[in-house]
Amino acid sequence: METPLQQQVVQISPSRIGWLRFRKNPMTLIGAIVLVIFILAAIFAPFLTSYDPDKVQMAERLAGPSAAHWFGTDEVGRDIFARILYGARLSLGMGISVVVIAGVLGTCIGAVAGFYGKALGQTIMRIMDIMLAFPSLVLAMALTASLGANLFNAMLAIAIVKIPVYVRLARSETLVVKEKLFVKASISFGLSKFWIIMRHVIPNVIAPIIIQVTIDLGDAILLIATLGFLGLGAQPPTPEWGSMINTGWQYFMDQWWYPTFPGCAIFLATLSFNLLGDGLRDMLDPKSIR
Amino acid sequence: MLLDVTELSISFKSIYGYAKILDNISLNINKGEIVGIVGESGSGKSVTALSILGLLANNASVDGGSIMYAGKDLLTMREKEIQNLRGKEIGMVFQEPMTALNPTMKIGKQLANVIRKHRDVSRQEALALAVESLRDVQIPDPETVANKYPFQLSGGMRQRVVIALAMSAPPKLLIADEPTTALDVTVQDEILKLMKKLTVEKKTSILFITHDLGVVSKLCDRVYVMYGGKIVESGLTKEVLYQSKHPYTKGLIESIPENKAKEQPLKVIEGEAFNPKKRPAGCIFYDRCPLHSDKCKTAPPIAHFGETHWTSCWEVD
Question: Which positions in chain B touch A185 (Cβ < 8 Å)?
Fold first, then answer.
């Protein structure tokens, strides 16, 4: 019998390695699946329920979960399942916008701070330190309270609160990238500093930012719900998960379903984003190859 | 005269104190000339190159001298003015082609960006010009290469791309900082031929920095030999290589392994590499020079041999 001397070397592309690592971690997969379900539910809300989330039906107020109302109804007879579906649009949409605003602004500011190390960089970083000194919820509450309690201001406040994390992350990565030869080479080709930051620095610092974005999404949704619960975010009758709990918690002893289902929605959405974020970190971080 | 560096001194400040890296360097480059700077590691070759483009690190300080380019002193220029010269008037090719390109941008796009910076063309035209410039540096199948990322190219290919980037204006002066050091010998040769061809075509002068005397003999019209931040000998390439006067230049030539009998041990320059913290008061080569005597403890005079050739040494005859 002849035995083949050469072992076959199979080339695996980096994206395939990423997928294999992604698949190996079941929690990430669960996170991703739950998330897809939420996103689909948000997009196809009108097809998944025949109820209008804002329609008052006093005859059916505070009805328990049944075949007609899967998650029961609230104090004015609105279908909670429908409200959670439409609420998913708000929570996910706002969560994503918050993180995108904070991510884009934070990355740009951080890249500038890292690139111009001296006075400008130090000034930016000390301002960020001041912002980080406050607990994020307290700062978000203070900002919404002073801007005026509504959904848009809540979104703005959370975005501002989230910026320092991205600034610090982008700055530390920029400090590494700016020492690379291609940045010096770009300067020697006569490209402007602004151009170099936008086209040569930021694309090379983006990987950890993406990971931070997925992790922060869950946190942002939680913060939005918290502000809603405290009456600082979405105002009734907007179907927002936090404000639903805000009105629902007083009914908890007798009508448990009213605050429980929105709470579960917040819990599941936040958890799935965190699981996905962890998985993405393992996937995109070349240092954690196992 | 295109570039005229006079009595340039540069020192670096670190936590260990000051270190003088360039000590009264004077050199010049004429239009269309290829001028070499040879020397070992730490002799100040790269610092000279970087100082011309104003790319020195923050802890470097210029202690004196001037760098005149087209009648203006680059050292007193504002950052904005130097910025306008970079790439357009003075280009640079770096030592490591592996890291001189942005890994996240396609080759064609990187080239097009630089081309648009220097010429008034649309995005589409710039991309077409990028492909053209890849053809100019003899990259086979430039249309495909323009669509690739740097990691998909070999070292030699990348260095061609870097040359294309540096030549995209094209500049009047190209500073090449050991552009072939990281490449293997056959590729080196091709890159050298390419650079020579481009400079003839585009009438660009080159300041070629290397530690390889073989490369100097193939490419350069004139050469400066540097040691310890000083120029020790200068002249036309054939004068410096075949009628070397300075003991350091002689030592360098004797330590080339090519065309030497295998049986005999190769000659080396004795002693340690130059240490800027232990800069001798007199001749910079004092510690390692086989001919050193007491008079070498004072700075040596400049000895001229004909119009172009000179060296700074006591022991010349």
Answer: 92, 94, 100-101, 162, 165
Q: How does pLDDT run across A209-240, given as a tens digit for each residue?
A: 988 888 888 889 889 888 888 888 877 778 88
Rounded to an integer, what distance in angstroms lies between the CA atom of residue B302 and that of residue B299?
A: 10
Polymer length of chain A: 290
> pLDDT digits over B255-283, tens only?
888 777 778 888 888 888 888 777 888 88
State the pLDDT confidence band at A73, using cuts at 50, 70 and 90.
confident
Q: In chain B, what residues touch A201 (CB-CB under 8 Å)? A: none
Per residue in A234-267, pLDDT tens?
A: 777 788 888 888 888 888 888 888 888 989 999 9
- Contact list in B for residue A14 (CB cut-off 8 A) is none
* B94 within domain boundaries: no
- DSSP class of B294: G
Residue B235, domain member (yes or no): yes
Contact A185 B100 (CB under 8 A): yes
Contacts across the A-B interface (CB distance below 8 Å): 67
Lowest model confidence (mean pLDDT) among B176-180, B256-260, B287-291: B256-260
pLDDT at A166 over 70: yes
pLDDT of residue A6: 53
Q: Is the pLDDT of residue A2 over 60?
A: no
Please check whether residue B103 touches A, CB under 8 A: yes
| pTM to 2 decimal places | 0.79
- C-alpha B294/C-alpha A26 separation (Å) is 78
Walk me through the domains of chain A, giving residue ranges and CATH numbers. 23-284 (1.10.3720.10)
Measured in whole angstroms, how far is the alpha carbon of residue A78 from the centre of its chain? 28
Comparing alpha-carbon positions, the chain B residue that sits nearest to A181 is B100
Interchain pair B92, A185: CB under 8 A: yes
Which of B135, B151, B168 is at the close of a domain?
B168
**Residue from A176, A183, A188, A202 to probe the interface with B (highest B Cβ count within 10 Å):** A188
For residues B76 and B112, membership in a common domain is answered with: no
Which pLDDT belongs to residue B313?
87
Instruction: Give the end of a domain, one of B168, B191, B213.
Output: B168
Nearest Cα of chain A lies from the Cα of B106 at a distance, in angstroms, of: 12
Token pair of B53, please?
A: 């483009």
Q: Quote the mean pLDDT of chain A.
A: 85
**Residues B84, A190 contacting (CB under 8 angstroms):** yes
Whether residue B62 is found in the same domain as residue B200: yes
Q: Which residues of chain A from 142 to 171 reach within 8 Å of chain B, CB to CB? A: none
The verdict on residue B96 lying in a domain is no
The CATH number for B209's domain is 3.40.50.300
